[in-house]
Design brief:
The chain is mostly helical and about 425 residues long. Helices cover about 75% and strands about 0% of the residues. Strands 1-2 form a two-stranded parallel ribbon. α4 crosses α9. The radius of gyration is 21 Å and the shape is globular.
């Protein structure tokens, strides 16, 4: 897959004029998809771990953190998508063109390492899902994960639509699993609504966990990837078509990220209702969460939890592989076959499982690794989308630039603090 080449691009004139003949509520359909692929990174197995920790330890107190995180994610992913539409290139390609060769190669190395480390953790998360769902060992579960991951990536040979449809379906399945979990947990929805809009903490530890959730809001690998997904998907011809395409793209981002935010909120709320409400404050791993759900809520709940984790790991692992391909092609104009990349990134996962490293601990470490890469993706994104010579008619307005700068500064600062706390601890 080339950078920005996620399938055969549609004719901008044909697609954009064609929507005017559709019913109003159907006009957005041809433009839905890229944000659903990006949103998978926000409901990956690492989010399972942090959300369950937040709910089990502090109840509904940190629901507002999920809401704030999701709003910031919407802004950042919108900027990434807009860069692809405005320039016809992805963020890595723009960095290569606008920065020095040394800077571009340095950015490529760290972006590749982040994508590979993330892919490793997501693969382990999917294997853990198979392990919990089927009751098999982690190694055979990893073999099943590899087969499923190759199958998902294989959809690309038929263009971008089958992959987007599959990922959107997976997101829907995860959402349905957690909708059912909420039904079983039966939380006080009024209390949840209050904590969603009223910030609050429950001691120093809750502040640190909130920083961890906020600091891990932006997934660097999907900042690189989202711009590639929109770069040539539908070719807009002229400023008017670009503006119109961007309006539809905003809807795609809002819908996809709202679903991802709702799933994250459901994770925390379920943990708060089931674990915090019963005094089980030390649910420190995904395995313990799965094991504890069954006697409290019932066997169906633990099965749904394992199923959601499995689909989350499979989809986010595939996205990590695609992101690695995008940054390589974008920065150095080189690429390796996607299936070779997938095979290479599977090897470390099998090694980790073979030597008996705790998969839940690996997922936590992956969030720390992600922290290193966030400023290197976020700062160039804000810089380029604020420049008229890069963006043309889609350049950020003053308010957007201020908001994006504040969000970038806040997230980068929080991640530095998170890294300090991790290594100091």
């Amino acid at each position: 897959m080339g950078a920005g080449d996620t399938g055969r691009p549609g004719s901008g004139e044909r697609v954009l004029h064609g929507v005017s003949r559709r019913r109003r509520y159907l006009r957005v359909v041809p433009f839905m998809g890229p944000a659903f692929i990006a949103c998978v990174a926000y409901i990956d197995p690492g989010n399972f771990a942090t959300n369950i920790a937040g709910g089990s330890k502090f109840g509904y107190t940190l629901v507002w953190v999920i809401v704030a995180s999701n709003l910031m994610a919407m802004l950042i992913q919108t900027l990434s998508a807009k860069l692809g539409i405005a320039t016809g290139r992805n963020l890595a390609e723009v960095c290569r063109e606008r920065f020095s060769q040394r800077t571009a190669r340095s950015l490529w190395v760290q972006a590749e390492l982040i994508a590979m480390a993330t892919d490793l953790a997501e693969f382990l998360g999917a294997a853990l899902g198979f392990h919990l769902l089927l009751g098999i060992g982690l190694f055979p579960a990893a073999v099943l994960t590899g087969i499923a991951a190759f199958a998902i990536l294989g959809l690309q040979r038929w263009g971008f639509r089958p992959l987007e449809a599959t990922i959107a379906t997976i997101v829907g399945v995860i959402g349905l699993c957690y909708l059912a979990e909420i039904f079983y947990a039966n939380p006080p929805l009024g209390t949840v609504a209050v904590h969603a809009v009223v910030p609050g903490f429950a001691g120093k530890e809750s502040v640190l966990l909130a920083v961890g959730i906020l600091g891990a809001t932006v997934m660097p690998h999907v900042i690189w990837l989202h711009s590639a997904l929109t770069a040539n998907r539908i070719q807009a011809e002229g400023d008017e078509q670009k503006l119109r395409l961007m309006r539809f793209t905003r809807v795609d981002v809002i819908v996809a990220m709202t679903i991802a935010g709702a799933i994250n909120m459901a994770m925390l709320v379920m943990a708060a209702a089931v674990f915090h409400g019963t005094g089980l404050l030390n649910v420190d791993s995904l395995e313990n969460a799965h094991k504890t759900l069954e006697p409290i809520v019932g066997g169906a709940s633990s099965v749904l939890f394992a199923l959601a984790l499995l689909f989350s790991g499979l989809s986010s692992s595939a996205i990590g592989t695609l992101a690695g391909q995008v940054v390589m092609q974008g920065f150095i104009r080189r690429q390796i076959p996607l299936f070779v990349r997938r095979a290479v990134t599977m090897v470390p996962a099998f090694v980790v499982i073979g030597i008996g490293v705790d998969p839940s601990r690996t997922l936590v470490i992956s969030q720390v690794v992600l922290s290193f890469g966030i400023p290197f993706a976020l700062i160039p994104l804000v810089l380029f989308t604020s420049r008229r010579d890069v963006m043309g008619v889609l350049v950020n307005d003053r308010l957007t630039t201020v908001a994006a700068t504040v969000v970038a500064g806040l997230i980068s600062t929080l991640n530095v603090f998170l890294l300090y706390q991790t290594f100091a601890g």
